[in-house]
Amino acid sequence: MVYHNAGASVWLSLALSPFLAASPALARTVGPRDPVPDGFHAAPYYPTPYGGWLDSWKDAYTKAEALVSQMTLAEKTNITSGTGIFMGPCVGNTGSIDRLGFPQLCFQDSALGVASADNVTAFPPGITTGATWDKSLMYARAVAIGKEFRGKGTNVHLGPTVGPLGRKPLGGRNWEGFGADPVLQAKAAALHIQGVQEQGIIATIKHYIGNEQEMYRMYNPLQPGYSANIDDRTLHELYLWPFAEAVHAGVGAVMTAYNAVNGSASSQHSHLINGILKDELGFQGMVMSDWLSHISGVDSALAGLDMNMPGDTNIPLFGFSLWQYELTRSVLNGSVPVDRLNDMATRVVATWYQMNQDKDHPRPNFSSNTRDRDGLLYPAALLSPVGQVNWFVNVQDDHAQIARQVAQDAITLLKNEDNALPLSGSSKITVFGTDAQVNSDGPNACLNRACNKGTLGMGWGSGVADYPYFDDPISAIKKRVSDVEFHNSDSFPLIFDTPADDEIAVVFISSDAGENSFTVEGNHGDRDSAKLAAWHNGDQLVQRAAAKFKTVIVVVHTVGPLILEPWIDLPSVKAVLFAHLPGQEAGESLTNVLFGDVSPSGHLPYSITKSATDYPDSIANLRGFALGQVQDTYSEGLYIDYRYLNKQSTPPRFAFGHGLSYTTFSFTNATITPVTTPLSLIPPARQPKGSTPSYSTALPPASEAYYPDNFTPIWRYLYSWLHKPEADSAHAIGAAGTKKYDYPDGYSTEQKPGPAAGGAEGGNPALWDVAWEVSVVVTNTGKEHKGKASVQAYVQFPEGIPYDTPTVQLRDFEKTGELAPGESETVKVVLTRKDVSVWDVELQNWVLPGAATEAANKGYTVWIGEGSDRLFLACRTEGGSCEEGLEGPGA
Ligand SMILES: *[C@@H]1O[C@H](CO)[C@@H](O)[C@H](O)[C@H]1NC(C)=O
Ligand SMILES: *[C@@H]1O[C@H](CO)[C@@H](O)[C@H](O)[C@H]1NC(C)=O
Ligand SMILES: *[C@@H]1O[C@H](CO)[C@@H](O)[C@H](O)[C@H]1NC(C)=O
Ligand SMILES: *[C@@H]1O[C@H](CO)[C@@H](O)[C@H](O)[C@H]1NC(C)=O
Ligand SMILES: *[C@@H]1O[C@H](CO)[C@@H](O)[C@H](O)[C@H]1NC(C)=O
Ligand SMILES: *[C@@H]1O[C@H](CO)[C@@H](O)[C@H](O)[C@H]1NC(C)=O
């Protein structure tokens, strides 16, 4: 989402808008269904499946039905839309039904902490969390985030982010998610959702789907958003995977993407929302638009959207909406069936009940619009009442410790020649680079962190939070070592005396990215200008330091991969630490590793190639400007990141999953056990759908839409009422039933039984049956250092199956506790039926290719190791034995 502050882009779109915004109709930039690019097809899927047919949501739906059945037409439409941007304390604020005690719901950024608020924790972003490969930390961080969202009185947390998945290294928002692999994203997202929702906060998985680059993502009156053209199998096996796991984890909300998929905008894509999300994945919660991406009223409702955020058309601040009063009209005139509106309202209310928000849920006690105590209650109204908007509730508790642990355990040691690390602390240290010290203007000086000045703790855009303070690396280093010299510059000094042999240089470099609503140093969200080089001539800074010093340690704060070739093999570049994006706890988390209090235990959540062109054009490059709709075709299919490099036998510089330690580990005594046997070719037949709430489908009387008598509106606030003459004339059209809406092709109002691949939250429940369990003993074989090991399990499909599959694919991971030298821990990883299946496009189901061949259920190899290129242990499902000391199958 964008525009949560009165930032530059809002005023930019205002400059464009006076003539366009004069009529809300003109804000609608597409027809009922958009044209579809060659070779791709956005098949219609109607109607929207009713929510409520699953036991796991039964109680919430029963309560919701009781409440919704008392609502008038204008009350139902009031709760399916925001009341307008900057029309309340949060980035999104729905209407309320005061009569029935249903409050305005507060929707708030971001995935890493409460955005635009004081006294919160600025946690490390998703990419850093992914780099820990530690499920307990993923969960602990989420619990803390959920508590802070609750403490500030929000209802809906706009996270986690798993789209972008990280297909393009240059993509601007990859750092908000957990890494370039569907399983890493999925497991982290599921734990995030669990942790947040246990605090009674609705989590939102986003952005659904194909939002793999920032540039040209949005629809505007002159150009549609780009089209991500994705084939069905690639969608299921890569991009949909984390969304399916999120639904399986019970996520309450899904946010659609700005871009189109197969030519059709995500916010009105019936195949994606009605078909895949609500029928195949059985999603019972609410689907919201991304901020200001709502471009059709009737069509988006029919396609399955339930919530328009923040309520405006895609040109905000003029008091126009395609829902609210227009949705009221669309129901009265018969275009949107009453039962669709009932389902929309029920989904919203059921999600609220599902998280127990009917019981003592706090109200917002902060404002996104100002940090002052008092402020405008409705800033977009211009003439707004003023009152207290910030109560400065401190929600930080002891969460800094969790933030620091995540930042620390994410730090990834890529190289460590001659055991240069850990540092003893006795040698003189010279620190280079502006990235070592907090922004001298203050850590929050740049709106939405849209600058790269000082230590880079997070990317920019809506996915940020304000730092309550910033623990920077240079302060933490100075606490450890008395003899520190700091050059707060990204240029190496022109004159520099040759240091003594034992002096150490620590060079800080960075690479930033963010959301397309801001341009930073020529980068339009994506890294379109800097590409994969360090910013501020950082590569040259390392080279210059390496020319003078015998020992150079490089610390990298980055949103994603960089090309390290300019210096990685220089003899004096002894060690490299990727500290990713540490959030507020950048200092001590780093020195704990630098000086050996702990061993580094992070592992790369993406591959680092030797050259950008080691990937095909479709991955390596951003799609540039085109007349009409920019096309982003996923021609590489399943082959992104290590899947592609393995297929091409292109060794990366550092592989996905790579990460060194100060100690070493052995993986021994592995066993593989079949759990659910035998497994059939396809999952057993699903259960039929359970019952859903039922309401009268009669056209509501026009009077349910009338403005109340003597009502004084707030200027430009979005209301769900119509003036009497408008309501009456819409009702006349609906009652006559003669003037028909121009429905999209394939439109139908008949509920379907649901596809075979569905049946429960996330899909057919048998997909989560455990197929095999692998256990392995991990031992710290070092002499000196304690350390945590990452255990990664990759599946290799059987030979000779009729499906092309990547060489290996991550399927599970675990991290050990801190093991002392000689200490062991037994670790278990599991493979579910889904983990050993492929999506069969013809059958429209998950198929077990191991069962399709003669050797039923056989021939899978489960590779275990410390990285996608360090898989030295293999367990075979055929024969059930495990073998050590192998050379893995990777590039
Ligand atoms: C996109 O088009 C391809 C090719 O027709 C099809 O396999 C896929 O299901 C479509 N996906 C969506 C989301 O419409
Ligand atoms: C819609 O919500 C707004 C904001 O809470 C409220 O002022 C208005 O009365 C609500 N309308 C209806 C129909 O309840
Ligand atoms: C803010 O939230 C807290 C709970 O964290 C609650 O006790 C308090 O009443 C809220 N303040 C306001 C002004 O609503
Ligand atoms: C009903 O109202 C909606 C919203 O204004 C409009 O888009 C639609 O065309 C109308 N339908 C008819 C049949 O007039
Ligand atoms: C945090 O809350 C305290 C009161 O607990 C307040 O004095 C302080 O100003 C707040 N911090 C910020 C940055 O607003
Ligand atoms: C591993 O297995 C061997 C025998 O195969 C046994 O001697 C050893 O104790 C086992 N180690 C652990 C840690 O279980």
Automatic annotation (TrEMBL):
Pathway the protein acts in: Glycan metabolism; cellulose degradation
Keyword entries, A-Z: Carbohydrate metabolism, Cellulose degradation, Glycoprotein, Glycosidase, Hydrolase, Polysaccharide degradation, Signal
Q: Which domain of life is it from?
A: Eukaryota
Pfam families to which the protein is assigned, alphabetical: Fn3-like, Glyco_hydro_3, Glyco_hydro_3_C
Report the leader peptide range.
1-27
In this protein, which residues make up the domain named Fibronectin type III-like?
A: 789-868
Which SMART domains does the record associate with it? Fn3_like
Q: What is its EC number?
A: 3.2.1.21
Which BP terms in the Gene Ontology apply to this protein? Answer: cellulose catabolic process
Reactions performed catalytically: Hydrolysis of terminal, non-reducing beta-D-glucosyl residues with release of beta-D-glucose
InterPro entries in the record: Cellulose_deg_GH3, Fn3-like, GH, Glyco_hydro_3_AS, Glyco_hydro_3_C, Glyco_hydro_3_C_sf, Glyco_hydro_3_N, Glyco_hydro_3_N_sf
**Which GO terms label this protein's molecular function in UniProt?**
beta-glucosidase activity
Query: Belongs to which family?
Result: Belongs to the glycosyl hydrolase 3 family.
* This protein's name: beta-glucosidase
Kindly list the organism's lineage: Eukaryota, Fungi, Dikarya, Ascomycota, Pezizomycotina
